Amino acid sequence: MAVATIDFDRILHGTEASKAAAAQELVESFRSTGFVRLVNTSIPTSAIQQAEDWNHKFFKQEMDTKSKAVNIPSPNPQRGWSYLGAESTARLKNPGRLDLTDEKEHFDVGPPNDTSFPNKWLEDSLPGFQRFSEEFYEACQTLCLQIMAACEIGSPLPRGTLVNKCVPAASELRYNHYPAVSVGKLNQGKTRRGWPHTDFGIITLLFQDSQGGLQYEDRGHPGRFLPLQRLSDDEVAVNISDTFHRWSNGVIAGGVHQVGLPPLSEQQVREGEGLVLPVRKSTVFFFKAHRDEMVGALDSFVDEKRPKKYEDITALEFHKRMTDVLIKNSLTTPVAGS
């Protein structure tokens, strides 16, 4: 099934009837595909482009420079630069596959002024990066709260049920960098740009570049992945993640996705395993519940026919549990080429 595209202005500024209809379309797209495309959101196209520009500026820094803001692998929320091999999305679905890696490095930003898990910056090398990232973080957090309010309208939830669980902020902004890689290396079966997985927040905002490669699993045909190309510069792809899955007692399941080969021309196909895929960039926002909120099934989704499936643990406990899986047996130091 195709992912719906929704004009988010209908939710922000439409009539009550238009807002309700758009909210129902939003929830239905999440339920049927795990994803939705949003256009005309509260985040301007210029900010999305600036995020891509800063992504490029950070990852062109030398390894010694990036290492000044390196994330130390642990179950805690990630902060700063994570090098190639620091995590593997394959382990979220296959915890025992310690031999599978991601061909990716990334930089993570938490809430501004977070004293529990402080952010890391390179102000001497990248003046302005912190200021932009904090502003973009707040813009993404605002959009996510707007999406939560829309989900309350489009589902059997009292107003405020979701929104109130998400303040104060505990989300994470991530800049992803996928280095150039040969098709031959990917075909060896030990590394991918991203293995099939679900994210473990509530929802994820995805801002893609033009390279392509993001794919979502067809719920009607498990194991079949369909491309989710960016269709416009202001587009925000959004996927449902594990916390929402738990809150909804499995009614709205997390969207399984991966980063595979982008659409290839006939000439590229002829190059076969010698083809080198260019650098791919994306900026993502992992929207998460407040750390002390419970992430078990909500009462609105529990009844005699659908008993409670998910226990009450805090959002932070769930985050640490999943992060520990991601980094299990990962590299503990950067390698040349990161």
UniProtKB/TrEMBL annotation:
Task: Provide the Isopenicillin N synthase-like Fe(2+) 2OG dioxygenase domain boundaries.
Answer: 175-287
Q: Where does the record place the Non-haem dioxygenase N-terminal domain?
A: 5-123
Q: Which Pfam families does the protein's record reference?
A: 2OG-FeII_Oxy, DIOX_N
Please give the family membership noted in the entry: Belongs to the iron/ascorbate-dependent oxidoreductase family.
The record, for PANTHER family, names: 2-OXOGLUTARATE (2OG) AND FE(II)-DEPENDENT OXYGENASE SUPERFAMILY PROTEIN-RELATED (PTHR47990)
Q: What is this protein called?
A: Fe2OG dioxygenase domain-containing protein
